[in-house]
Amino acid sequence: MVALGLAALLAAVLFMTLGARGNWDFVLPFRGRKLAGLAMVAVAIALATVIFQTVTRNRILTPAIMGFDSLFVLVQTGLVFLFGSARLSALDPRLSFAVETLLLCGFAGLLYRWLFGASQRGLHLLLLVGIVFGTLFRSSAGLMQRLIDPDEFLVLQDRLFASFNAVDQDLLGFSALILLAVSIALWRMLPLLDVLALGRDAAIGLGVDHDRTVAIVLGLMTVLVAVSTALVGPVGFFGLMVANLAYLLLPTTRHAVLLPAAALIALVALIGGQTILERVFDYDTALAVVIEFLGGLFFILLVVRGKSR
Fold first, then answer.
1. Residue 91, in any domain of the structure
2. Is the dihedral of CA 147, 150, 152, 157 positive or negative?
3. Do 300 and 237 form a contact (C-beta atoms < 8 A)?
4. Please, are residues 70 and 138 in contact by the beta-carbon 8 Å criterion?
5. Mean pLDDT score, 157-186
6. Each residue of 102-125: pLDDT tens digit?
7. In degrees rounded to 5, what are phi and psi of residue 41?
8. How many domains, the chain?
9. Fewer Cβ atoms within 10 Å of its own Cβ: the N or the C terminal residue of the chain?
10. Where are the transmembrane segments (predicted)?
């Protein structure tokens, strides 16, 4: 854990100072805002993935499988289709952020309430419904994308991919408060998370109100994913990688260790990756593209490894 903390600190220092020239009064605030955005997204995705895998008791699932990414694409496409990119650009970014976050939270809240209700329909239906909704959202978005003006489509394409260089500084403070509140709530629930990892029957046998606790955890996870997605866009496989790396490096079931470890690994990966792409490759590619490629390979590796067992 100490090594991960030092690695995260080193990545942050390198991001702030490597290749810096000119006026430090400009460089430090400019890079500091980007660093804050990267850090919040990394921590939010890491925490959300670990607690989601705890609830589902499956280490190859991420919140993205529930259709968050597809819903984000549908919302962005629908806004451009209805109002046009010029009007959207003129909107207050805080209003746009609030609308996107509320839509994502509302969808997830209704879905999880139905799937994790008293009937306990099960994990397989959760996966099936998530895939079906994701397909529905993407098909609807694809239809609208074919109907809009080609110039509007080019603008839309920039909004659909995760961008760590375009985090609006007006949203950082609000997002930081939300992340801090959710992190405090999760820290107070650490013993309950350890019990939830044992399974429904064991948790009920130990006196935990399973349904209520799962609903609270999923609600917190939804807020984390909604905030990170509204800030930079969808990053599907990033949480899968950092969560499983935390399991491998620190083989324990205690969430007091797993949650900070996953967050630190996410900080090292996201900040370090952005530093390398900016200073070594000179922006020749996007970090989101690299994450999706490596994440897809990592997912396949986990599936193959599971089948071999």
1. yes
2. positive
3. no
4. yes
5. 78
6. 777 777 767 666 655 544 455 567
7. -65, -45
8. 1
9. C
10. 35-52, 64-83, 95-116, 123-144, 171-190, 202-225, 257-277, 283-304
